[in-house]
Design a protein that fits this description.
With 92 residues, the protein is of the alpha+beta class. It has one domain (3-91). Helix content is 32%, strand content 11%. The protein has four helices and two strands, in the order ααβαβα. It has helices at residues 3-14, 26-31, 70-76, 88-91, and strands at residues 59-63, 80-84. Strands 1-2 form a two-stranded parallel ribbon. The radius of gyration is 14 Å and the shape is elongated. It starts with a helix and ends with a helix.
Length: 92
C-alpha cells in the first residue's frame, strides 16, 4: 500500500475546510511582529510561548505545517520559515 497516497486522499476527502486547514487572518498576522501571537497544534490549546526561542532571524522548519497558520504567524513574528507538507492541497 502507498501510505503517502492513502493519507493524501484521506486528507483531501475529510479535512478540507476544517479549522486546522483555514489560513490565519490579517489581524493575527498584523499582531505577530509585536510579540502578540499564539501557535496552536491542537484545536484549543496554544503551545506555551516559553517553548520558543526568540524568533528574530530564527530559521524554522514546519513539517506537515501547510495548514496556513503556524508558518505565516512565525514568519510575521520574525522567523525565516520553510514549510513542507506532503499534501499539495494543503500547500495551495
Amino acid at each position: 500500500m502507498d501510505f503517502s497516497r492513502h493519507n493524501q486522499k484521506a486528507w483531501d476527502r475529510g479535512e478540507k475546510g476544517k479549522e486546522n486547514t483555514i489560513a490565519v487572518d490579517g489581524e493575527t498576522i498584523a499582531k505577530a511582529p509585536s510579540g502578540n501571537w499564539k501557535i496552536y497544534i491542537t484545536p484549543t490549546r496554544p503551545v506555551r510561548g516559553e517553548c520558543f526561542p526568540s524568533l528574530k532571524d530564527c530559521r524554522v522548519l514546519c513539517l506537515a505545517g501547510a495548514g496556513g497558520q503556524q508558518g505565516p504567524i512565525l514568519a510575521a513574528a520574525g522567523a525565516e520559515v520553510t514549510v513542507f507538507d506532503n499534501f499539495p492541497g494543503q500547500l495551495d
